[in-house]
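SUBJECT: A protein chain and its fold
Encoding: whole-number codes for local backbone shapes
RECORD BEGINS BELOW THIS LINE
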Amino acid sequence: MLTIGIKGWGMTSKTIFGAAALACIMLAACGSRQGEDDGRTLHRGNGAEPLTLDPHKIVLSQELTIIHDLYSGLYDRDATGAVIPGLAESVEVSADGLTWTFTLRDAEWSDGVAITAEDAALGIRRSIDPATLNNLAINLFFIENAAAANRGELPVDAIGVEAIDDRTLVIRLAFQAPYIRDVLAAFAFPVPGHVIKAHGEDWLAPENLVTSGAYTLTQWRSNQFVRLDRNALFHDAADVCFETVFYHPMPDSQAAERRVRAGELDLNPGVSMSGVEFLSENAPELLRRSSSYRTWFLTFNTRQAPFDDVRVREALSMAIDRRFLSEDIQRGVTQPNWRPMSPLLPSADGAFDLSFRDEDMETRRDRARELLADAGLGPDQPLQIALSFFPHFARAAPVIQQDWAAIAPWVSAELYQTDAQLHYASLRAGDFDVGYSGWIPDFADPYGVLYGWESASGDANYSGWTDPEFDALLDAAAQERDPDARLALLSQAERLVLNAHPQAPLFTEENYDLVRPDITGWVANPTGQNPSRWLCREGLEPIQ
């Protein structure tokens, strides 16, 4: 799941942040706890304005956070980020691991209509349906006929999902998927068939939307707030503590830090690099730290010259001084990364990294210059790069700009900064040269990263790089039932990506979150997801 420039938008970062700051001031006035409630309103900073609250069109992790509050799936996540039963009361798995039969609990939508197995089947079909334009449908291709249906080669009704009766759902798999529970918890939320039948595409309008999770959507004021209220019909409503939850888009992490310290926000995911140092010394009680599979990298647009040349991509990756970035610019908050995924994820080959990892920077710059010259670039054919990013990368971008300029006088980069929404829209559209991005896999498996380069991944593959051999390795891994052999195939696929350089890995980053001391139930975890249903305030009890 994505974690949170574009040329010619006509807006500066100051304009964006100024508007966001004004929205925060307005929201502080309408959402302040002082005297307006008994502590049962939770104020959450949320990084970026959500692009959508459609459970099958999510792109940003900030959207998934809200979705987990609104919807319960067959599986949910607990306070630690672990997958737990949600709407599924029980499941039986066939001996070959290919047929999963779910019995649903007795539960209701927020309007009192029963949640049925057909609602669950409809949600899975909708997630796979090409008309939905779900960038992450590839995660569900382990379901029988899902890949063909997503390509439009079969009707969506042909996929291996069937409601046997109101409470029995059968999912038939094309191959065993060890990560099936994680995927169903993130990408296959049931949807209310009765509301969709009544309102069509308008079923997501706040006045029509019904939910299955701990909260319902009450208001969504763009770039101001998303307001949720407790769903009294949620199957676990008796354990929910907060009556109301406000999500505030906070693209300026330093402004978010100030608001948490002032008590205007109860929590905020993510902390600025400078903020980690300051808060560690001045407000350590607010800082929560945990390990993470999150990685940050630069993506090359391989659809266009000169980034379609692997020599250019390797040269630019080689010239980046990752150690200086992490140790001096980001003061040890990040760690240099040398592979396409987090070093915490397993590899059959043990640790394998970019070949130039241990070379000194002067040697690497000389080699980068040679590679660019071999690619036909030089004084008569200079390399000009547009480096696009959003505020999270603001301190690192000028350093990389200098690293590339140090290769040769004929190499230069222009910096383009915008907010996360516009930036990721640009990446999906292929409207960039080199773009900054981050990724947290939704399941702790190498495939949770590697599928981003499959030919079938569509717009989720920002680089546009594909390779038939890579696809074949992932297909073979999907069919392989021996865990060690499967991991070996995935490692071969990762090595192909490593040597093709569709991205330049930069660094890994632990989770640093701000949580006020009176908030209970917050458990820092690698998924970065902390649903509001598990949170409470010191001295309060769940609403009965």
Notes: The CA atoms of residues 71 and 212 lie 5 Å apart. The first helix runs from residue 13 to 31. Residues 5-35 have pLDDT under 50 and may be disordered. The chain has 16 helices and 21 strands.
